Amino acid sequence: MMRAAILTLHASRAVIQVKLNLSAPRDTLRKVSTQSQFPPKSLLPSAALRSLFPAIVVARERRIPGDAADLLPSEAIFVRNATPKRVNEFAAGRACARSALAELGVHDVALHPAGDRQPVWPVGFIGSITHTTGLCAAVVAARRSILAIGLDSEIIGAPTPDIWSTICRDEELGWVGLLPADERPAAVTLLFSAKEAFYKCQYPLVGEWLDFHDLSIAVKDWGRTTGTFAASATRKIRFTQHADLPIAGRYVFHEPFVSAGVSVPAAAAFPQ
Question: What's the predicted TM-score (pTM) here?
Fold first, then answer.
């Protein structure tokens, strides 16, 4: 996986709490509380995350903590020795995914992790799970419609400046440097989330590990709460056996989070 140490985003540090000010003529960044407007254990359709994907994709979100009681017995075995935090994340992710699958007609299915910790989806379906402090979500679709899919959500400002150069290539840092100082943490978080979403889209399809600098993200529509980005590879990667690059993704700023989504419609995939 992309550098696991970076994925923790220095969790022991206080994160910068920012979001887009929707009331401004042009969306601008300001500090806000991270207090959720939803009860901690709500399991809800997610309009924000749903907007990142084609209409055939089902999205569900839940505000962490999860509940170990939601796990099916065969799932609980996989986290019997895990920390409470890991159990909560695992349970919340499975609850979101099961709710999404139920909308597609698949009920009460166990979602076991494979050896690489990727969820093993029911035959004929594909999905992606994300979790960060205060939010867990899943998206699911039928494989006949979607070949590959990746979702990632992050707290805005969580990547601290000391790791920006690990996440970003020089040209990306150049773009960030042109932005007002108070917008840079959100911009880097978006780049991080976009790269994670692409990684999570391609990995189940081709099984290739990527580094942050293997990918280049060009953000469009900066300054708005929703927009698009183009993801390119800076070296030869297996994903190009299935789809063209650059590939378009979408992002959304919502509450204290930024989320990114990448998907490959089955109809757009190369014949194998």
Answer: 0.85
